[in-house]
Amino acid sequence: MSMLSKEQEEEFIKKLQENIYYKYVKKENAASLTLEQQAELIKELETYPSGLVAACLEKGHGRVDYYTSRMDKYYTDASLHCTNRNVGARCGYVVTMRVGVPVPGFDGPTRYDLLRLIEKSPKPVTLVIQVDEPEAMRLSDSNFGGQYGRVCNIAGVQNVICDGAIRDIDELESFGMQVMVPGTVASTAPSIPYELNGKVEVAGMEVEPGELVHMDRDGAVKFKVELLEELVAMCRAEKWAEEKTYELIEMAETVDECIRAYEICHLRCNPAPREDAE
Predict the structure, then answer these.
(1) Please, is 250 exposed, middle or buried when counting C-beta atoms within 10 Å of its C-beta (0-12, 13-18, 19+)?
(2) Shortest CA distance to 232 belongs to which of 24, 45, 25?
(3) What whole-number distance in Å separates Cα of residue 180 and Cα of residue 48?
(4) What range does the domain containing 98 cover?
(5) Is residue 278 in some structural domain?
(6) Are 89 and 49 in contact, with CB atoms under 8 Å apart?
(7) Between 26 and 111, whose confidence is greater?
(8) Same structural domain, 128 and 77
(9) 252 with 3: CB under 8 angstroms?
């Protein structure tokens, strides 16, 4: 391989392996993060793409054991997409709402109650809406729109994830909101709240109030607030490895060099077993 000498390649692999087995060690008796400290870490997390964040959550990267398979429901599937191309990655504290078709005489929560919950939540807020309707109705009824979106935005909502249709997407984006939905509709046909701040599942991702969701155009991933400091530290390490391996790929000029570069880069996904690894 002409792009690296044998000695350079061995040194590169050694550093990459060290990075793969990086393990965050929290200071003993460290105090819990303040909301201000969490806010700073959230800002940093928003500089990383969702794919990198997900990689740091996945056991396959030898990082942590919190999430081990798709059965853990920690990320969204391909049925939703981010609409706002003018904003990058976003991260926010979860507030949830479960909605459905209007039921006569149903004594449930109101959208005004939701605004009070948003007010009490740490900021920024990611509003996650689960739509409990038959498939045809879920994708033809509007579950969120411009005027209510604006009052939610003023109250602290920065992002909205909904597994049903919404409307007024240009208005919502003009507020600086990121929206993740299967699509939009022109008609209103509004739904009503069934439940607020309960556990919900949207597009295969199961979330609870108070968790954090990181999202961009590749999808959304959720995690516990307690993992925030560790996750940011892991993202820093993963970002270094990603940049270095891309540099290696860009050095390749032949197919054989491309193959060897990818073999080395693929160690990040399939690291060799290590005797002292836990």
Answers:
(1) exposed
(2) 45
(3) 18
(4) 73-223
(5) no
(6) yes
(7) 111
(8) yes
(9) yes
Q: How many domains does the chain have?
A: 2
Place of tokens 């800002």: 43
Write down the residue that tokens 């498939």 correspond to. Answer: 135
Specify the pairing of strand 205-207 against strand 200-202: antiparallel
> What would you report as the CA-atom Rg of the chain, rounded to the nearest whole angstrom?
22
Provide CB contacts within 8 A for 147, sequence distance 6+.
168
Is residue 145 domain-shared with residue 45, that is, in the same domain?
Answer: no
Surface-to-core class of residue 201, CB atoms within 10 Å of its CB (0-12 exposed, 13-18 middle, 19+ buried): middle
Per cent of the chain over pLDDT 90 is: 61
CA 161 to chain centre: 11
What is the CATH number for 156?
Answer: 3.50.30.40
Do 217 and 237 lie in a common domain?
no
What are 14's two structure tokens? 């050694």
Instruction: Please determine, for residue 63, whether its predicted confidence score (pLDDT) is greater than 50.
Output: no
272 against 64, higher pLDDT: 272
Residues with Cβ within 8 Å of 22's Cβ and at least 6 positions away in sequence, in order, are 63, 234, 237
Same domain for 145 and 241, yes or no, is no
Q: How confident is the model at residue 79 (pLDDT cuts 50, 70, 90)?
A: very high
Residues 121 and 200 in one domain: yes
Q: What is the pTM of this model?
A: 0.89
